[in-house]
Amino acid sequence: MVGITGTNGKSTTTALVHHILKSAGIPTTMGGNIGLPILSQDPLPEGGVYVLELSSYQIDLTQSLDCEVSVLLNVTPDHLDRYDGIDDYAASKARLFAMQSPEHVAVIAAEDDHTGAIAGQIGGKLVLVSSADVKDQSRWPSLQGPHNAQNVAAAVAVARSLGVSDEVTAKALVTYPGLPHRMERIGERNGVLFVNDSKATNPTSAAPALAAYPPAPRKRLHWILGGLPKSDGLDACEPFLDHVKAAYTIGEAGPMFARLLSEKLPVRECEMLVAAVGEAAEAAHPGEVVLLSPACASFDQFKDYEARGDAFRAAVEALR
Hints:
By secondary structure, the protein is α/β, with parallel strands linked by helices. The protein has helices at 10-23, 56-60, 86-98, 113-119, 146-161, 166-175, 203-211, 254-261, 273-283, 305-317; strands at 2-5, 28-32, 49-53, 69-72, 105-108, 125-128, 184-189, 192-196, 221-226, 244-250, 267-271, 289-292. Helix 9 crosses helix 10. The N and C termini lie far apart (48 Å).
């Protein structure tokens, strides 16, 4: 078993590890917080690998999950309505490693204070990874941005721990198709690229999407954001606002985000997603990008982030 947790990136890393193992001819299935519940799936044959995406909620309910490889990507503020502060939330993630036998492998991207502290508590086999380990992401169209560099670094470490050759892994990174609603390239209209990153439900997960489109030689990013806010700021996104040509706010957080951004870049308060898509498409020039990366939950206007992403796709497809 491979267990993968973290505030952001765990779905992509789970799917990527699953894809690498399939490419290597290893029997594998994935489940947990992604796809079908793992215990409802048929058992794998001898030598198979279960790849589990594990939320903190699921780890809280688990008492004896001893993964051969456990992975922690990052810990940033999230689900704080459930936990007594971020330290309590991080402690939930750390339990995945406390349940491991010492001969099993812990893969940790110790790039924030909490993951670094958890790494310092590991008594068994520890593999530290970093987004800086990954060079030249241009080879992997579905794995752009610094957040995906961290996902790739973790997935490569898992593959090596399971005996997959670097050659097989390298080919699998090129063919990985990506997941819906995570930096998903919807298509181009009149030379403008539309990207669905609806899964970015907090500012920390939206920031790497902004970082994936640097401003040189000119700003070209039209950013659609808003929804049900998880915080009262966009601090994680601040370093990348110079990448944004204009912002289009929607949902409950729209007025707050408009106030925060209006002194830094042009903002249009659109309220509804379909209106934001229309205004961004009208303003964007060939070679520019319209990015839905909301930095918010979806529950003010949509039943979930998938429904929000589907509505974005429908709005893009309806453009003339």
